[in-house]
């Protein structure tokens, strides 16, 4: 306890750390102000009714940081940037040059890779913004737009999304933690009072055991998320002795930590983005004046709205994306090569290719546990919603996972900054 207070004191006293934290807080305040400024011509009553009947938009509202629920100028949030990042991650598998840039060229290569993601964000923001504007106009949520009004709204929406992307990059560079994750986190936290008030107004004395059970389950899931996020599988590593002159180097034993959940919350973000994109496209196409396109769009929209189809698809996508993202960000062959270059080896395993295979087998097994856990957390709110009939539980698990993961990551980075200053 004394150590914790000592670190908190250091955070408060250290001018650089304090300025970083204030920069994060100030940026999030700016974001919340932007999220409260609506685009022109919004029918608030129709908007509330539309959101109450569409849980997909509720999920998308998470990644807009709450800006979609009131059609603010940042209604797209960081969604286009996340989608661009997904596409670029997929391209690393298809293009060896991009993979080399991302994994082997160090900080300069990652900066180039991020710049490509930013450039790809612009056309994606225009596509998503146009689709949303058409959909909202068809629903009567936004008043009938002339060609000029449509272009103006589209420019405002795209500009808001790019502004948030820039704000997230500033938080990452001049603050503490991942800026995009913190923006999503701020949107979730800001929506908590609304969700609590909805539960309060719908409260009935007969549902007290249900609410108590929900609190207990939430605490258990939170503890499980923390446990899985922090869980590691250590692989013992020994450094061979080397003699240089009269000095002996090496001969020490350490371990290589493999996280059970290497991908963090990224697979859930990827899966929701993939599920929401066709839903949005088919909703727009359902208004096209063509019988065939209209029929196909209505059928696919109904299929995507089916709870069973949505839940199963969600679980499978989260499971697959966990393995995909782990494969992209962690290369066992590169780790094995680096160990061999530094005179290190895993006891009982030959250096080189055998080490890479050994690490891959362990990684596959522990990732299986992480992937199953993430998939269960993703669909658990749907199970709770079906069992209790409480609609506000539909996005609770995803929000909880994001919040816990972001808080753990933020605490870890603050602790790293404090430790660096202590030494």
Q: How would you sum up this structure, described in words?
A:
- The structure is a single chain.
- With 423 residues, this protein is mostly helical.
- It has 2 domains: 1-201, SecY subunit domain (Preprotein translocase SecY subunit); 212-414, Orthogonal Bundle (Preprotein translocase SecY subunit).
- 74% of the residues lie in helices and 5% in strands.
- The chain has 16 helices and 5 strands.
- The protein has helices at residues 2-13, 15-35, 44-52, 55-63, 79-94, 96-103, 106-138, 147-174, 179-201, 208-230, 266-285, 291-305, 307-329, 332-341, 353-388, 396-422; strands spanning 232-239, 242-244, 247-249, 253-259, 344-345.
- The longest helix has 36 residues, at 353-388.
- The model has no long low-confidence stretch (mean pLDDT 77).
CATH hierarchy: architecture of the largest domain: Orthogonal Bundle
Termini separation comes to 20 Å
DSSP helix fraction: over 70%
Shape: globular
Coarse structural class: mainly alpha
CATH superfamily of the largest domain: SecY subunit domain
- Biggest sheet character: 3 strands, antiparallel
Number of domains: 2
* Rg of Cα set: 24 Å
The CATH class of the largest domain: Mainly Alpha
Could you provide a short overview of the structure?
By secondary structure, this protein is mainly alpha-helical.
Topology at a glance:
Layout: H1 2-13, H2 15-35, H3 44-52, H4 55-63, H5 79-94, H6 96-103, H7 106-138, H8 147-174, H9 179-201, H10 208-230, E1 232-239, E2 242-244, E3 247-249, E4 253-259, H11 266-285, H12 291-305, H13 307-329, H14 332-341, E5 344-345, H15 353-388, H16 396-422
Antiparallel strand pairs: 1-4, 1-5, 2-3
């Amino acid at each position: 306890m004394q150590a914790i207070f000592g670190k908190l004191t250091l955070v408060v006293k250290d001018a650089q750390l304090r300025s970083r934290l204030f920069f994060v807080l100030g940026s999030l305040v700016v974001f919340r102000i932007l999220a409260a400024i609506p685009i022109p011509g919004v029918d608030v009553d129709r908007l509330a009714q539309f959101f109450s009947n569409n849980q997909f938009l509720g999920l998308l509202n998470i990644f807009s940081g709450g800006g979609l629920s009131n059609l603010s100028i940042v209604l797209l949030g960081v969604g286009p940037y996340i989608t661009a990042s997904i596409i670029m991650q997929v391209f690393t598998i298809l293009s060896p040059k991009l993979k080399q840039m991302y994994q082997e060229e160090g900080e300069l290569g990652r900066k180039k890779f991020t710049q490509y993601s930013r450039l790809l964000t612009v056309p994606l923001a225009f596509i998503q913004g146009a689709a949303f504007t058409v959909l909202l106009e068809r629903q009567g949520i936004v008043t009938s737009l002339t060609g000029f009004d449509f272009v103006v709204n589209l420019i405002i929406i795209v500009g808001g999304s790019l502004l948030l992307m820039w704000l997230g990059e500033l938080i990452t560079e001049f603050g503490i933690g991942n800026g995009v994750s913190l923006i999503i986190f701020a949107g979730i936290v800001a929506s908590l009072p609304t969700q609590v008030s909805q539960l309060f107004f719908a409260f009935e004395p007969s549902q007290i055991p249900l609410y108590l059970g929900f609190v207990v389950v939430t605490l258990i899931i939170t503890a499980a998320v923390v446990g899985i996020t922090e869980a590691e599988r250590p692989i013992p590593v020994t450094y061979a002795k080397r003699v240089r002159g009269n000095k002996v180097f090496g001969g020490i034993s350490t371990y290589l930590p493999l996280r059970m959940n290497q991908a963090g919350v990224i697979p859930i973000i990827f899966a929701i983005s993939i599920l929401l994109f066709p839903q949005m496209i088919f909703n727009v196409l359902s208004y096209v004046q063509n019988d065939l396109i209209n029929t196909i769009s209505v059928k696919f929209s109904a299929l995507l709205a089916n709870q069973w189809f949505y839940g199963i698809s969600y679980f499978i996508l989260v499971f697959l994306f966990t393995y995909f993202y782990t494969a992209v960000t962690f290369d066992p062959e590169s780790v094995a090569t680096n160990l061999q270059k530094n005179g290190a080896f895993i006891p009982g395993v030959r250096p080189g290719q055998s080490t890479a295979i050994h690490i891959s087998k362990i990684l596959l097994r522990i990732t299986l546990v992480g992937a199953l856990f993430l998939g269960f957390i993703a669909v658990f709110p749907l199970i709770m919603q079906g069992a209790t009939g409480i609609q506000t539980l539909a996005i609770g698990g995803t929000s909880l996972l994001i919040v816990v993961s972001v808080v753990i990551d933020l605490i870890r980075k603050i602790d790293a900054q404090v430790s660096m200053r202590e030494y």
